[in-house]
């Protein structure tokens, strides 16, 4: 009968700190999440926000998740986690919840894109909304990948 003692705890992978964050999956997804989320925010801000309720939610989700992800990245780079297993749970819950919020924002942004297609103000706004929709879905996909990859790690 094999004993299940401290030797099992040592097989858990250590949480990365410093530059190793950029080389370790799923933590390497944080920087692309921030960059793509920033593009969503910039592209929506560059349009004439014709549907303030819909695109306001997109702006809120993209800006808030970008800032929280930046804080999470900085905390990993500084090593604030001290290799605690609670950080994995926090990371997984945050990225899972943010994936759901980002998917809702991406759908609303796609709706705003469809509505801007029929608006004769400027074809530039349709193109900006299309790009914002693309980056919103890409960012939601990155958050989903991060949440599931940390869960299955």
From TrEMBL:
Membrane topology per record: Multi-pass membrane protein
The family database entries (Pfam families) matched by this protein are listed as: MARVEL (PF01284)
Q: What UniProt keywords are attached to this protein's entry?
A: Membrane, Transmembrane, Transmembrane helix
InterPro entries attached to this UniProt entry: MAL (IPR013295), Marvel (IPR008253), MARVEL-CKLF_proteins (IPR050578)
Q: Does the keyword Membrane apply?
A: yes
Where does the UniProt annotation locate this protein?
Membrane
Q: Name one GO molecular function term.
A: structural constituent of myelin sheath
Q: Which residues form the MARVEL domain?
A: 21-153
The GO biological-process annotations, alphabetized, read as: myelination
Which ranges does the record mark as transmembrane?
27-51, 57-80, 92-112, 132-152
Q: Give an example GO cellular component term for this record.
A: membrane
Determine if Transmembrane is one of this entry's keywords: yes
Top-rank taxon: Eukaryota
The protein's name in its UniProt record: MALL protein
Question: From what organism does this protein derive?
Answer: Cephalopterus ornatus
Lineage at the top is: Eukaryota, Metazoa, Chordata, Craniata, Vertebrata
- Gene name in the database record: Mall
